[in-house]
């Protein structure tokens, strides 16, 4: 802009005036000056004619003439530095070039010059504003004429003024360029024409009518031998790809693809052969690779925008590509003489077929690709399969002939020559990537089987997957291949493993491809060989084994894959005849742990191999069904031994001395040992994912170390393990369901951290919130910020955990609490949030109402476990505390009347008081809601501050109990005629019981049920084969036991039982003493069968810690008859069913093995609850998944239900049916009933999983609508499928007599 004449100024004024006139309406309609500026700034987005304004064209031409050369040079530089992989996308390139340009000296000078020019022009316009307004129309006409006169201005003017250059590429100019591009023209003319074409604005070129002719001309010119001319054409194509719409770029792309197709089909061009290899410095190869690279770059970018255009455009691009890749030269030639096909060059530039991955990603393009592959270009798939087979065969040949040199599949950025073997390998990688992506999709798998020319049989999906699998351990190991800027493992095993991983993540694909016996057998082949120590074994490297284990671990993490490994396709879990994959993997892992495989002795990678295969086992034994299969191998013992050995090694590592040469080696050795030690602890910890596995973990003696390890990872917010989809919730809940697990959680600091975190959220607020940001007022009773901590406490505080954590401990009840005093244990939570019985406690809370409601909600959930309720009542008198708080919430009104103040706390206390003082199922008690109602009476439920409770909370339905069932009794008892043949009578009783339960279940209650139970158990125990426990002589009389004392929990339980019995009209006055005597007799009777044991667990120090809910239930069934109850208990104690219905029966029992006895874990948990989880996963998988997602376990809630005989969860008649069903039909029916309940609750469970309060729902809500009799047919089906396995395991709980 050195020469800026008055004519230039006038022309620029005219352009600017035209622009302002066109947007006049938009500007004048703006409400303010700022809005007008915004309209101008965003004019390109809102005005479709923006690029047609002369002023805009002028600016574009001005910028291009000033900065165009610099921008092109920078783009070429970036393109040349770009890697052969995916590389940065188009957006990244544009951003980089823009940044460099804006920071350049040329840009700053241009802006300065442009600013000066525009200041002159704008100042002139302002001075002539009034005159311009008067002559507006006339000037507009002159502007239009000026435009027309400029269209034919020579673009290559010799003048230095930019105003002598054109802003529109005319049709005549393009026609002239077409003539100059003719092959007959001199070289200089053609080069100049091509330069002119590249310099012209692409939009002007593409809008010309001769565009199609230009495309054809360019296709012909691509065959020109002149490299400079070719580069100019490719530069024009690249600009077109970058700046033009799809319908234009499509024509350029298809022209380029067609040119390459003709180039490869022509016999005149010098295309390299496999024998000669590819020298990328050869001029011909350079030009060929440039063309293929341009195609490939466009292939990777076009999927991001072709969905916005008609499908025909995309189809033309896809078809031209597949047509090019389907070219195959004469197949009769020897492999070494074979001319390289286009796909070799594409593979050189895009070895992992990223272009195909992007094309297959979206359904829009995937359907077109797959349709064309199926109908016209299946040869692309066939040749890819053929290449994989050829590479596998070459690997076999190398393996058999040790004199052959393995190919080096490695290179670096400066590599300039690719040998025959490297080319074959690169093509193999491309084929593998392409096939791997193809198999993910259903329609892609339908392209198989494929027929190969040199094979009789077709190659099926299974054949291909077996081939892939064998490539892992047949292909040679090789170092890393760095064809990109980032180091990446290009060894065959790594590449195949990567493909198989992706397939494992796609459920349908994995089911159709991987979860097949031949594929699994192929994975297990090297393990077979190593176990047998055959000659083939040493050829399988440690790296290959690690890859195999990684894929097997992913297979085992999916339900279908797990079942295939455990049972095979024939559903056979036997380890003797044709052992399944699980058995072989377990045997191999055990040998690895014991270092019993000589091939790997002294190998540095042995710990990695061990870890990889134990990881596969972990995927199996962390499930109930997997653990069931692997139990015989005692992997928990082997892993524990390995951990103890490694732990000793880590203690012996010498401390590095500063300045010593051995620092690095010692440091690396210690890191490896510590990593291996943590890996083993993690493997042991995963046993705790199931009830039976938790028992095995406890037996190893490493439970405390495992929980400490878990807490350390939890504190660092680390993932559980590679294949776990959820966090530590399930393991923590399993731990908390047992006394030994709760103690381990306490010792590790987990509970301390949980309580501290809760207090920080509840009382202190978050540390990362600025002081100026006020906390939002909680709307829900438990604020969302506290919900996670609340659920964690609910998961933690099962009765076994509660008793260990607070049993026989007083609350502090201090006279003063510091505001800085933070709770650290469960006792503190009870003291500070639940039992607020002093002003000091209330004043110590910043958020008294919210915190106390949190505590009351927690108390409500805890009291759903009746043993926990009795413990809290006996130790802390929570009921009296709540009644006293309600009394203090009374307001004196006129006339001496008193009324309760209705607020959040009083409503919550009222709900808890009703819950803890009334026993009954869903139809037997009415719990007041926690929410207020709309209207004049927001809370119609009466509050109270003393017992007894108002009658409105007692259900009217359950009061009407008809005791006159004489006709029903006679009718039913006539069906149970005693036969001389005892086995026949027992079977007949069971049949009649089932029929009665289906037809008229209501008569199985009262005296009928009592008499049936007496007769059935009496006759059953007369047959020694039906007895599980030996007979025990017991002769104590009432006088001997009257003076014995019961625990405070038992005493409160008696009162609760009698109160419930009187409500049911089955007990009379004086029943309290009788029940106390029954409990004292049963305690003494069981004490005769207990073993002496010393343990730090509270639950094992003396008598049974909870109340005997089974004896209480039986006392009610026997209508309060003490003698009948005791006789029945003595007989019943000999049956296997007693071990699972009557929990105190096996409390520190001498019949249990010592290790189980010392664990404090009841068979109801490690056997019954274990099988509940196992069957639930198979029978009601959605419910099982819901539990897993919630971090809660079926075992904990079922243990609670069973322990208290479903009191408060079922109505009395259903409790009777539950006990009767288990007694008559066997202990396994206890498991079936729990499965039926969870099946019944399926919709509610899924709903509450979504609302993230599943554990609260299951613990607080009664089982509405559930009737045992409704599920008899379903339970009989469960019996047919599972009884042999369940009864066999249930019978194995007793110590075997020698």
From TrEMBL:
Residues in BROMI N-terminal domain copies: 12-138
Any one biological process term the GO annotation gives: non-motile cilium assembly
Example of a GO cellular component annotation carried by this entry: cytoplasm
Pfam families recorded: BROMI (PF14961), BROMI_C (PF23440), BROMI_N (PF23431)
Family annotation (Gene3D superfamilies): Ypt/Rab-GAP domain of gyp1p, domain 3
Boundaries of every BROMI C-terminal Rab TBC-like domain copy: 862-1293
Ranges for domain BROMI middle region: 173-844
Keyword Cell inner membrane set for record: no
InterPro entries assigned: BROMI_C (IPR055392), BROMI_M (IPR032735), BROMI_N (IPR055391), PHAF1/BROMI (IPR039156), Rab-GAP_TBC_sf (IPR035969)
Cell compartment(s), UniProt: Cell projection, Cilium; Cytoplasm
Keyword terms: Cell projection, Cilium, Cytoplasm, Developmental protein
Subunit comment: Interacts with CDK20, which promotes CDK20 stability and function. Interacts with FAM149B1; may play a role in cilium assembly.
Known function: Required for high-level Shh responses in the developing neural tube. Together with CDK20, controls the structure of the primary cilium by coordinating assembly of the ciliary membrane and axoneme, allowing GLI2 to be properly activated in response to Shh signaling.
Protein name: Protein broad-minded
Organism, as annotated: Vombatus ursinus
């Amino acid at each position: 802009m050195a020469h800026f004449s008055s004519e230039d100024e006038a022309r620029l004024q005219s352009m600017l005036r035209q622009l302002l006139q066109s947007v006049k309406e938009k500007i004048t309609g703006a409400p303010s000056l700022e809005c007008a500026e915004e309209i101008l700034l965003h004019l390109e987005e809102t005005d479709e004619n923006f690029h047609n304004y002369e002023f805009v064209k002028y600016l574009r031409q001005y910028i291009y003439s000033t900065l165009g050369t610099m921008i092109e040079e920078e783009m070429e530089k970036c393109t040349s530095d770009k890697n052969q992989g995916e590389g940065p996308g188009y957006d990244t390139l544009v951003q980089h070039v823009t940044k460099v340009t804006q920071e350049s000296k040329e840009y700053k000078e241009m802006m300065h010059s442009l600013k000066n020019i525009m200041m002159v022009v704008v100042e002139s316009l302002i001075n002539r504003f009034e005159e311009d307004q008067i002559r507006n129309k006339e000037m507009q006409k002159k502007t239009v004429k000026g435009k027309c006169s400029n269209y034919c201005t020579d673009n290559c003017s010799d003048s230095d003024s930019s105003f002598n250059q054109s802003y529109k590429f005319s049709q005549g100019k393009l026609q002239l360029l077409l003539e100059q591009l003719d092959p007959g023209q001199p070289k200089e003319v053609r080069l100049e024409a091509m330069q002119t074409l590249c310099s012209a604005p692409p939009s002007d070129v593409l809008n010309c009518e001769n565009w199609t002719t230009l495309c054809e001309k360019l296709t012909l010119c691509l065959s020109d031998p002149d490299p400079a001319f070719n580069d100019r054409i490719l530069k024009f194509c690249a600009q077109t790809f970058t700046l033009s719409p799809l319908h234009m770029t499509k024509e350029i792309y298809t022209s380029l693809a067609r040119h390459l197709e003709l180039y490869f089909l022509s016999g005149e061009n010098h295309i390299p052969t496999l024998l000669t290899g590819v020298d990328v410095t050869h001029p011909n190869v350079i030009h060929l690779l440039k063309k293929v690279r341009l195609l490939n770059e466009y292939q990777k970018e076009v999927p991001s925008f072709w969905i916005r255009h008609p499908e025909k455009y995309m189809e033309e691009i896809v078809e031209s590509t597949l047509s090019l890749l389907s070219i195959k030269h004469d197949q009769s030639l020897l492999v070494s003489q074979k001319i390289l096909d286009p796909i070799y060059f594409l593979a050189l530039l895009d070895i992992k077929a990223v272009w195909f991955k992007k094309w297959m990603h979206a359904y829009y393009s995937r359907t077109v690709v797959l349709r064309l592959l199926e109908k016209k270009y299946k040869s692309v798939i066939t040749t890819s399969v053929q290449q994989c087979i050829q590479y596998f065969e070459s690997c076999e040949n190398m393996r058999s002939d040790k004199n052959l040199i393995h190919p080096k599949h490695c290179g670096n950025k400066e590599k300039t020559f690719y040998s025959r073997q490297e080319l074959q390998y690169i093509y193999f990688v491309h084929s593998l990537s392409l096939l791997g992506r193809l198999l993910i999709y259903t329609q892609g798998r339908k392209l198989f089987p494929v027929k190969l020319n040199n094979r009789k049989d077709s190659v099926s999906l299974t054949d291909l997957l077996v081939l892939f699998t064998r490539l892992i351990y047949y292909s040679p190991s090789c170092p890393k291949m760095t064809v990109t800027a980032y180091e990446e493992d290009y060894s065959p095993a790594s590449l195949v493993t990567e493909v198989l991983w992706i397939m494992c993540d796609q459920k349908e694909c994995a089911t159709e491809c991987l979860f097949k016996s031949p594929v699994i057998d192929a994975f297990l082949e090297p393990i077979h060989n190593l176990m047998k120590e055959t000659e083939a074994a040493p050829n399988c490297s440690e790296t290959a084994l690690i890859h195999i284990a990684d894929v097997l671990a992913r297979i085992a993490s999916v339900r279908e894959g797990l079942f295939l490994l455990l049972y095979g396709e024939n559903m056979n879990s036997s380890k003797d005849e044709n052992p399944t994959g699980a058995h072989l993997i377990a045997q191999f892992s055990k040998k690895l742990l014991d270092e019993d495989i000589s091939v790997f002795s002294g190998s540095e990678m042995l710990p990695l191999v061990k870890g990889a295969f134990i990881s596969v086992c972990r995927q199996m034994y962390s499930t109930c069904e997997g653990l069931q299969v692997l139990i015989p191998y005692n992997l928990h013992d082997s892993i524990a031994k390995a951990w103890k050995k490694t732990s000793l090694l880590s203690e012996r590592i010498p401390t590095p001395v500063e300045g010593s040469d051995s620092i690095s080696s010692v440091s690396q050795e210690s890191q490896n040992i510590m990593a291996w030690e943590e890996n083993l602890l993690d493997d042991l910890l995963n046993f705790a994912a199931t009830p039976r596995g938790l028992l095995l973990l406890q037996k190893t003696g490493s439970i405390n170390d495992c929980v400490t390890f878990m807490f350390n990872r939890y504190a660092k917010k680390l993932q559980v393990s590679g294949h776990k989809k959820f966090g530590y919730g399930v393991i923590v809940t399993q731990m908390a369901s047992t006394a030994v697990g709760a103690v381990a959680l306490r010792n590790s600091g987990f509970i301390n951290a949980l309580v501290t975190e809760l207090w920080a959220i509840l009382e202190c607020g978050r540390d990362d919130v600025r002081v100026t940001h006020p906390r939002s007022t909680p709307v829900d009773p438990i604020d969302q910020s506290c919900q996670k901590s609340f659920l964690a406490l609910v998961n933690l505080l099962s009765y076994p955990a509660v008793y260990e954590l607070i049993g026989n401990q007083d609350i502090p009840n201090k006279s003063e609490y510091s505001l800085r005093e933070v709770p650290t244990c469960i006792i503190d939570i009870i003291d500070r949030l639940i039992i607020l019985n002093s002003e000091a406690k209330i004043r110590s809370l910043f958020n008294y109402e919210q915190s106390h409601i949190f505590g009351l909600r927690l108390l409500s959930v805890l009291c759903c476990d009746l043993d926990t309720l009795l413990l809290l009542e006996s130790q802390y008198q929570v009921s009296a505390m709540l009644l006293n708080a309600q009394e203090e919430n009374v307001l004196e009104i006129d006339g001496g009347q008193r009324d309760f103040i209705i607020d959040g706390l009083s409503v919550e206390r009222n709900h808890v008081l009703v819950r803890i003082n009334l026993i009954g199922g869903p139809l037997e008690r009415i719990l007041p809601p926690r929410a207020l109602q709309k209207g004049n009476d927001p809370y119609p439920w009466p509050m109270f501050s003393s017992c007894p409770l108002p009658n409105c909370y007692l259900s009217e339905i359950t009061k009407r109990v008809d005791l006159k069932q004489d006709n029903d009794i006679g009718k039913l008892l006539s069906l149970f005629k005693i036969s001389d043949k005892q086995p026949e009578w027992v079977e007949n009783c069971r049949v009649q019981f089932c029929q009665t339960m289906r037809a008229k279940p209501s008569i199985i209650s009262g005296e009928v049920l009592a008499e049936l139970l007496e007769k059935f158990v009496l006759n059953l125990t007369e047959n020694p084969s039906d007895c599980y426990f030996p007979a025990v002589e017991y002769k104590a009389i009432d006088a001997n036991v009257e003076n014995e004392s019961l625990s405070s929990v038992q005493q409160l339980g008696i009162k609760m039982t009698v109160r419930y019995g009187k409500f049911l009209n089955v007990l009379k006055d004086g029943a309290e003493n009788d029940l106390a005597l029954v409990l004292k007799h049963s305690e003494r009777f069981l004490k005769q069968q207990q073993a002496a044991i010393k343990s730090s667990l509270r639950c094992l120090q003396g008598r049974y810690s909870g109340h005997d809910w089974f004896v209480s239930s039986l006392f009610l069934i026997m209508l309060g008859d003490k003698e009948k109850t005791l006789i029945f208990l003595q007989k019943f104690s000999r049956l296997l069913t007693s071990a699972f219905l009557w929990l105190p029966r096996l409390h520190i029992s001498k019949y249990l093995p010592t290790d189980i006895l010392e664990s404090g874990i009841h068979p109801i948990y490690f056997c019954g609850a274990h099988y509940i989880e196992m069957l639930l996963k198979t029978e009601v998988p959605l419910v099982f998944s819901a539990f897993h997602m919630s971090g809660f376990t079926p075992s904990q809630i079922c243990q609670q239900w069973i322990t208290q005989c479903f009191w408060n969860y079922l109505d009395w008649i259903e409790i009777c049916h539950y006990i009767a069903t288990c007694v008559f039909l066997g202990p396994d029916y206890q498991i079936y009933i729990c499965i039926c309940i969870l099946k019944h609750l399926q919709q509610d469970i899924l709903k509450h999983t979504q609302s993230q309060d599943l554990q609260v729902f299951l613990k607080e809500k009664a089982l509405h609508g559930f009737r045992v009799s409704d599920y008899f047919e379903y339970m009989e089906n469960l019996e047919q499928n599972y009884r042999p396995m369940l009864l066999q395991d249930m019978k194995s709980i007793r110590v075997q007599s020698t």
